[in-house]
Q: What sequence folds into this?
């Protein structure tokens, strides 16, 4: 606003300024009576200062700029006026027929003409649209690239591109995509061939992750001594020998019997006892205290009145000096006697040498036996499934076919059990994985069943 | 005095172990990834001796790992890949959610993948180490290769497993290292001797899968992932040792003959090739043209005493082995369509036989049923319409029993419709005094080269007579093993005759030292020595000795009891049969 005002004043003060509108006079200032207002508030500045003249002047300036492209007062005379010689018409005539010749097509539509801007002021540029973010940074990087290019160092992207081009030219795809492990046509190579031994410092290689950390030997021990494939007993043959088949059946039978025994035991323990409550017994129970109370009641007050003290009394009489001395002497005597006894016993042991040595021998034997037992147990442990998690390993049921189920020929053989499950359990048995069971689907809310009416109607 | 009070659970076993959850957190992995990592790296959980101490006073059952193991896992580069994969999945999910298909495609192209090669090398520093542990890998691969492509696991895994198992079978065939086969109600157990390592594996029967629900497929898939890599490298090395081309290529002539046949049945060239490979009927290309393998003879060193005996035993075993390798050489088999083709083809080819099948049954058949040179036709049905006179029609068990017995068994017991002798387990080794089933005894006698007829004739007099007519016909045709035996017998007879003639001509016989006497004297001497040794024993040793002997005797007694039972059982069975016959 202030700038505009200054502008106006400057313009007005200039001698050659021609206002377009004639009614712009200095008299209009004095027409209204000025109201006295405090101008110490910005709000009042706007409200009570008359800026009409400035506005009008500026409008005029804008109009001039729009129409002619600048203030007319600043124009040179040559650009405003020309000398009419009268020759121009001919030139126009020469040019006009050409346009008409071309036809109406070349003549712009009226609507376009209307829409065309007739202002001589170019539209303002959106500065933000032309501003580049990070321009400075980019400029710097460009400078750096240019510098390194001058030295002959290409940026990484360029280098990769060149490599790729070279590879494409030679017919090899540049980037070896990692091959899927389960690709059925994957290639293998000699993994154990002795390659060239590494000459570099092993520590360096390890630190730069070019060499893997050595696998501790402990990890190459197998967790169980059981063989990977346990061959089924001879009774499991598809056409078994009678007795080996019977052996296998017996084994399976014993397992089954054991299982049944356990179940029976459980059932026995959980069984409801014989004396089930009857109406009579329940009544008795309810009444129990009530009937007998009357008989007991007379006794009770007596007990209360009998003011007896239960437990020992704390008061103990003090010992006399004499008593104490006597006790001490006794104690000393006792100790002496014990010491003597010990000496005698030791002497006596001389005569017990045989029995002592026998004892020692027995003891030694026992320790040896226990050692052997412990060792045997440890050995047995090596082939036992361990407790590796929440669940215990359960020996699977033996796969058997009863005599009636045995196939008469290979063609009619019906395989028993599943090898997949066998393998899975074998891994568990050998302590390679912990025993697992299928995760149960847990419902948050109980399922609700309801019969639909249509269904009910049918029933 | 005094100092700081020792805190509980800050030293000793409490610090040596780490619970699974803590380990998981230390590695910054999800439980599934942690489990996978442990399987791949061969880190197993441990059961601490003092659980309550390790568990910091709690008695809740937990899974524990050794802290050092987990520290070792921290160095594994695969851990980073697992984390990358997690992020990949997250990004992919997001891209899907936003329906950014180009983003999905770009992500999929850059899917992170990891390799297990370095882990294999780390876990098995030498090839023999890997070979020792290949049992599991084989069983798993054979199992997965029979899975239906039903989405229980990736189809690619199944294909890879199939490829590897076929490669393995081809190797066993070429190296002729199969030793034992056992058909069971579960599957088929094979045992092979590869570079001095005894390797056992189990193969399921075809089309037997009902997928059990209580097996964690993710765990099994992880194991398979590891084992396929292992088996691939092992296969490569094994093929190298035999100078075979890897991946296996069929021999030129065989390939040519196949091409004409059923090319149009298989859409893909690669597919048909792998099928041909899995047919197991053709031999493989070698990098170095194969020279006829000369007999490798054992080195002889002048040795004495026990070593000599050992040497002899070893030589004997070697001889037996060579014999077993060439058991079916020169025999031509034809498989009827109801027998398990792959297993039989594998076993027959392992022992050097030729095998073929119906053209419509499977790709890769080499000759037709009408071929006159076929010696054995394997059938598993009660009767067959069209029979050729110059071949045996036998049941499949014969092949397997031959492998286990290491000799060509008499075919009569395995003819069509005959009740088969029991299929004994080759994995049982009876110690002295154990019960040995009579069938095994018979087999052992056969192996020693004794004539089976004598024993057999006694046992089944009447049954034999009916079959004898057929037998004679068949026997005329030829069977090499029997021919040899017969020759031997003839020779013995001739010698006996000669001896008789001599005794007739010469009346005075010169006195000769009896070799038997010397033997007997030697034996007596030995027995005496033993008795004396027993007498000289200390009391305690004597007690132990008596105990051992008693145990042995008890075993023998029990075995005898079982044998008697068996005899009674057999007789009862026979009596039943007779009754039935009479009724008929």
A:
């Amino acid at each position: 606003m202030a700038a505009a005002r200054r502008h106006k004043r400057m313009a007005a003060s200039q001698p050659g300024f021609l206002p377009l509108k004639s009614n712009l006079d200095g008299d209009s200032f004095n027409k209204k009576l000025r109201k006295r207002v405090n101008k110490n508030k910005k709000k009042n500045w706007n409200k009570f200062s008359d800026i009409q003249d400035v506005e009008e002047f500026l409008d005029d300036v804008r109009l001039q700029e729009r129409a002619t492209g600048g203030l007319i007062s600043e124009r040179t005379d040559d650009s405003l006026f020309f000398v009419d010689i009268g020759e121009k018409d001919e030139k126009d005539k020469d040019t006009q027929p050409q346009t008409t010749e071309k036809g109406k097509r070349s003549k712009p539509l009226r609507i376009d003409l209307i829409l065309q801007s007739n202002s001589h002021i170019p539209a303002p540029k959106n500065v933000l649209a032309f501003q580049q973010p990070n321009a400075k940074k980019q400029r710097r990087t460009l400078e750096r690239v240019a510098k390194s290019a001058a030295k002959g160092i290409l940026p990484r992207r360029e280098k990769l591109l060149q490599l790729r081009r070279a590879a494409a030219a030679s017919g090899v795809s540049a980037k070896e995509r990692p091959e899927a492990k389960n690709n059925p046509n994957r290639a293998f190579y000699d993994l154990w061939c002795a390659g060239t031994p590494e000459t570099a410092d092993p520590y360096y290689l390890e630190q730069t992750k070019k060499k893997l950390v050595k696998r501790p030997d402990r990890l190459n021990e197998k967790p169980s001594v059981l063989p990977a494939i346990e061959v089924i007993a001879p009774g499991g043959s598809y056409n078994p020998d009678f007795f080996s088949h019977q052996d296998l059946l017996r084994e399976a039978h014993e397992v089954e019997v054991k299982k049944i025994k356990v179940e029976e035991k459980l059932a026995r323990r959980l069984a409801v006892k014989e004396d089930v409550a009857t109406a009579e017994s329940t009544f008795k129970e309810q009444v129990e205290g009530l009937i007998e109370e009357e008989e007991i009641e007379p006794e009770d007050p007596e007990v209360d009145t009998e003011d007896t003290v239960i437990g020992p009394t704390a008061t103990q009489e003090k010992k006399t000096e004499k008593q104490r001395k006597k006790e001490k002497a006794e104690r000393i005597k006792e100790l002496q006697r014990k010491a003597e006894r010990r000496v005698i016993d030791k002497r006596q042991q001389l005569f017990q040498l045989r029995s002592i040595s026998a004892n020692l021998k027995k003891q030694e034997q026992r320790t040896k036996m226990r050692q052997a037992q412990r060792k045997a147990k440890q050995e047995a442990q090596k082939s036992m499934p361990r407790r590796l998690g929440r669940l215990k390993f359960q020996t699977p049921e033996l796969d058997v076919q009863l005599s009636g189920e045995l196939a008469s020929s290979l063609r009619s053989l019906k395989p028993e059990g599943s090898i997949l499950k066998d393998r899975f359990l074998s891994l568990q048995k050998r302590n390679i994985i912990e025993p697992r069971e299928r995760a149960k689907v847990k419902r948050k809310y109980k399922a609700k069943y309801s019969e639909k009416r249509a269904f009910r109607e049918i029933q | 005095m005094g100092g700081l009070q020792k805190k509980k659970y800050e030293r000793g076993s409490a610090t040596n172990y780490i619970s699974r959850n803590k380990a998981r957190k230390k590695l910054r992995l999800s439980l599934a990834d942690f489990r996978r990592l442990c399987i791949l790296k061969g880190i197993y959980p441990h059961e601490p001796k003092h659980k309550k101490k390790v568990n910091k006073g709690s008695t809740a059952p937990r899974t524990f790992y050794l802290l050092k193991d987990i520290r070792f896992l921290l160095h594994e580069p695969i851990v980073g890949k697992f984390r990358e994969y997690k992020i990949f999945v997250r990004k992919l999910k997001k891209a899907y959610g936003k329906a950014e298909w180009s983003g999905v495609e770009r992500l999929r192209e850059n899917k992170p993948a990891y390799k297990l090669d370095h882990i294999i090398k780390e876990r098995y520093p030498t090839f023999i180490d890997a070979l020792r542990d290949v049992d599991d890998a084989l069983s798993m691969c054979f199992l997965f290769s029979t899975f239906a492509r039903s989405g229980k696991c990736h189809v690619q895994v199944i294909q890879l497993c199939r490829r590897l198992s076929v490669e393995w079978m081809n190797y066993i065939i070429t190296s002729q290292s199969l030793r034992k086969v056992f058909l069971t109600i579960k599957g088929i157990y094979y045992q092979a001797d590869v570079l001095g390592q005894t390797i056992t594996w189990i193969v399921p029967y075809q089309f037997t899968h009902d997928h059990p629900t209580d097996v964690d497929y993710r765990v099994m898939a992880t194991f398979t992932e590891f084992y396929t890599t292992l088996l691939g490298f092992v296969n490569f090395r094994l093929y190298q040792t035999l100078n075979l081309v890897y991946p296996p290529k069929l021999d030129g002539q065989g390939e040519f003959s196949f091409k004409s046949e059923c090319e149009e049945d298989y859409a893909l060239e690669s597919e048909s090739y792998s099928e041909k490979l899995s047919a197991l009927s053709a031999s493989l290309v070698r990098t170095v043209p194969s020279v006829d393998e000369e007999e490798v003879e054992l080195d002889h060193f002048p040795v004495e005493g026990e070593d000599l005996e050992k040497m002899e035993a070893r030589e004997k075993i070697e001889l037996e082995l060579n014999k077993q390798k060439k058991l079916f050489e020169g025999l031509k088999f034809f498989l009827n369509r109801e027998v398990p083709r792959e297993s039989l083809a594998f076993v027959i080819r392992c022992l050097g036989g030729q095998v073929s099948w119906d053209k419509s049954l499977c790709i890769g058949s080499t000759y037709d049923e009408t071929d006159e040179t076929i010696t054995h036709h394997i059938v598993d049905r009660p009767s067959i319409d069209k029979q050729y006179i110059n071949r045996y029609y036998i049941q499949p068990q014969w092949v397997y029993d031959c492998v286990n017995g290491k000799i060509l068994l008499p075919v009569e017991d395995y003819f069509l419709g005959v009740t088969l002798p029991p299929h004994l387990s080759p994995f049982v080794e009876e110690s002295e005094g154990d019960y040995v089933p009579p069938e095994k005894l018979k087999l052992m006698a056969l192996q020693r080269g004794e004539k089976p007829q004598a024993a057999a004739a006694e046992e089944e007099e009447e049954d034999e007579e009916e079959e004898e007519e057929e037998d004679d016909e068949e026997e005329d045709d030829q069977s090499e093993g029997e021919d040899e035996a017969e020759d031997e017998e003839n020779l013995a007879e001739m010698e006996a005759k000669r001896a008789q003639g001599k005794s007739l001509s010469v009346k005075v016989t010169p006195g000769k030292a009896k070799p038997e006497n010397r033997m007997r004297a030697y034996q007596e001497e030995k027995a005496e020595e033993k008795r004396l040794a027993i007498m000289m024993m200390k009391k305690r040793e004597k007690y132990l000795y008596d105990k051992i002997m008693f145990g042995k005797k008890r075993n023998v007694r029990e075995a005898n009891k079982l044998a008697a039972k068996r005899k009674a059982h057999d007789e009862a069975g026979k009596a039943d049969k007779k009754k039935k016959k009479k009724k008929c």
